[in-house]
Amino acid sequence: MTTFDCADPDARAEGLAAAARAVRAGNLVVLPTDTVYGIGCDAFSATAVRSLLAAKGRGPDMPVPVLVGSWSTIDGLVIGVPTAARELIEAFWPGGLSLVLQHAPSLAWDLGTTRGTVMLRMPLHPVALELLRDVGPMAVSSANRSGHAPAVDAADAVAQLGEHVAVYLDGGPTEENVPSTVVDLTADAPRVLREGAVSVAAISEVLGREVASA
Predict the structure, then answer these.
(1) CB within 8 A of 33, min separation 6: which ones?
(2) What is the pTM assigned to this prediction?
(3) Which residue ranges run through the membrane (predicted)?
């Protein structure tokens, strides 16, 4: 278990390299995002995802979201990208908006009980984006033990997750301690499953229609 201070350029470069090695080796890393700190791993390693769920103390009934480092990454992850998804991506990515879509059936991943769907987001944080662009899509959940509050700084994540995680990237305290808004695009009409960093009104405005919320 090693923590790297990403405020120091040399430590940041060393930390990102160590985190990339850890992800490729099937280990867990903690990284800052624009919402809360996340615990992440290679999205395509079922073993690593199981380790992530074990570290959090939760089961596969709550699937792990996937973070991506660019808009175009999602084209290879889902069956098709609906117009509504394109419009929301252009308006809010990178940022606090997660999209639930039907994932491509050819993908060999096990993110939990997803029923053929995947939740995707591109975070607005330079450290997270640099790592994602290096290693590719990562399964990332909030960095906390199940039933506890999500970590808002690296020290909080260490206190909760300890030796379960190989590398901690310390990006300082998160500015927005608000979860992402989740929009389900698997049906004909978009539906907001959770309102967070992006308002339902802002989503409705971009799509040009009233969007229902759960």
Answers:
(1) 67, 123, 125, 128, 140, 174
(2) 0.93
(3) none
Single-letter residue type at 145: R
Q: Where are the domains of the chain?
A: 2-213
Residue 169 CA to residue 162 CA, distance in Å, equals 13
pLDDT per residue, tens digit, the chain (214 aa), is 899 999 999 999 999 999 999 999 999 999 999 988 999 999 999 999 999 999 999 877 777 899 999 998 888 888 888 999 999 999 999 999 999 998 887 776 777 666 788 999 999 999 999 999 999 999 999 999 999 999 999 999 999 999 999 999 999 998 767 889 999 999 889 999 999 999 999 999 999 999 988 7
Query: Are 207 and 198 within 8 A, CB to CB?
Result: no
Q: Which residues of 98-115 are buried (b: 16+ CB within 10 A; e: fewer)?
A: bbbbbbbeeeebbbbebe
Question: Which residue, 190, 177, 146, is CA-closest to 32?
Answer: 177
What is the Cα–Cα distance from 87 to 58, expressed in whole angstroms? 34
